[in-house]
């Protein structure tokens, strides 16, 4: 079946509009009657086919009593909903990359993640998340717990959907004692518990390998039966959602090479077990994987 022609912006606009209409308690037919539209016009707007002005959209959002922040967000997306690739700047006046990621996560069939220095956010414990955010200096102390909660909610979406996931992790990321010794022990054991789930595969890139294909940085790829693949790249002060076909294919090449150079699934589990025993004082320190 051919993939639907859509963009991350367009999907977020359509999803936001559907939620606004549902929250206001309208059916599509009832709202169209209030607006004096054909129901098909409303359907075209939601599905990214245009046919509506910015002013008409503003009236619709007003009738649905959409909050000012959500109203401004949807109005900003409307003129650019057809544009691929989306750089979202972080900060109080910027976009919310977690929203975009989670909304695309809900339609994904598979997730492939590569992490160079940190553990994937979907595998982190609460203590790891808190320590990483606190060390980043980007989150004010008064907002820390809310930020931790938001990231843990993203993990819940993964658990609800039993999404097929492949996590490629560098050995350095596993050995980094984020949050201190006790938090590190808890985190390594958590990764091992996640590794035995049927929908999760964890592959470790050994430190002894030296230079490798993933040195340019971490990323996450989402694939879906409905839509073209989407790659998410987290940067220092922004998040890039990559949709350009040639660029996405470049990331796919990296994934294929990571698959060739990483330890096998069982070898990776053995390394994690050995690290957990070392940290817990239950066995000799394991050698760096070769």
TrEMBL record:
InterPro entries: Cro/C1-type_HTH (IPR001387), DUF5753 (IPR043917), Lambda_DNA-bd_dom_sf (IPR010982). This is HTH cro/C1-type domain-containing protein. SUPFAM superfamilies: lambda repressor-like DNA-binding domains (SSF47413). It comes from Lentzea flava. CDD domains: HTH_XRE. Residues 17-71 form the HTH cro/C1-type domain.
């Amino acid at each position: 079946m051919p993939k639907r022609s859509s963009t991350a912006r367009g999907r977020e606009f359509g999803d936001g509009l559907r939620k606004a209409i549902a929250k206001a308690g309208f059916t599509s037919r009832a709202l169209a009657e209030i607006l004096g539209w054909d129901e098909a016009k409303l359907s075209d707007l939601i599905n990214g086919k245009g046919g509506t002005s910015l002013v008409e959209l503003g009236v619709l959002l007003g009738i649905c009593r959409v909050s000012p922040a959500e109203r401004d967000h949807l109005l900003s997306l409307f003129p650019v909903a057809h544009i691929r690739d989306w750089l979202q700047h972080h900060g109080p006046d910027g976009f919310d990359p977690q929203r975009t990621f989670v909304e695309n996560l809900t339609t994904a069939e598979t997730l492939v993640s590569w992490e160079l220095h940190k553990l994937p956010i979907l595998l982190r414990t609460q203590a790891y998340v808190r320590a990483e955010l606190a060390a980043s200096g980007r989150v004010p102390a008064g907002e820390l717990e809310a930020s931790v909660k938001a990231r843990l909610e993203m993990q819940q979406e993964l658990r609800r959907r039993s999404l097929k996931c492949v996590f490629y992790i560098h050995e350095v990321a596993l050995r980094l004692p984020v949050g201190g010794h006790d938090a590190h022990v808890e985190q390594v054991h958590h990764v091992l518990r996640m590794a035995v789930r049927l929908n999760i595969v964890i592959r470790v890139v050994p430190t002894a390998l030296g230079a490798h294909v993933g040195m340019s940085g971490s990323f996450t790829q989402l694939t879906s039966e409905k839509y073209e693949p989407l790659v998410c790249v987290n940067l220092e002060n922004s998040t890039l959602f990559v949709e350009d076909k040639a660029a996405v294919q470049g990331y796919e090449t990296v994934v294929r090479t990571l698959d060739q150079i990483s330890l096998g699934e069982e070898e990776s589990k053995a390394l994690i077990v050995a690290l957990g025993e070392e940290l817990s004082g239950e066995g000799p320190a394991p050698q760096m994987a070769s």
